[in-house]
Design brief:
60s Ribosomal Protein L30, Chain: A, 6 strands, globular, 6-stranded mixed sheet, 2 helices, alpha+beta
């Protein structure tokens, strides 16, 4: 496919593995999962609680989207990964819902996993459309 564009976004956190921040395929934009790392200091420890981690992760996603001239209003699908699903699900949801109007929430899947990069409690990836 020659309509693919692989994007690295200035100001977004450095990837923790060999991947692009986003790939554009026509009007569709696929963002790699973001974790709650500090985009200004990759060596900084991650926040310790799920609320702070969810906020930083959402901020990182917004940075990548903004670098593509998009915003959360362009997001159509979200996947959330939690390392302690039963402990963190309710608090993550309370924080997550602050980022989307109640009448315009993207579809979402939330999955419990056994581990994430840098021992993060949460990772979120999204699909957006121009």
């Amino acid at each position: 496919m020659n309509d693919l564009a692989f994007r690295m976004i200035t100001g977004a956190p450095d990837p923790v593995a060999p991947f692009s921040h986003a790939v554009e395929a026509g009007d569709w934009v696929f963002l790699s999962g973001q974790i709650p790392q500090d985009p200004d200091d990759d060596a900084a420890p991650l926040p310790t609680d799920i609320v702070s981690q969810t906020r930083q992760t959402m901020e990182n996603l917004q940075t990548v989207l903004a670098g593509l001239d998009l915003g959360l209003s362009n997001v159509v699908s979200v996947r959330v990964f939690l390392t302690d699903f039963y402990r963190d699900y309710t608090a993550m949801n309370a924080t997550y819902q602050e980022y989307f109007p109640s009448d315009r929430r993207p579809v979402r899947t939330c999955i419990g996993v056994t581990g994430l990069a840098r021992e993060a409690l949460v990772e979120i990836d999204v699909i957006a459309r121009r």
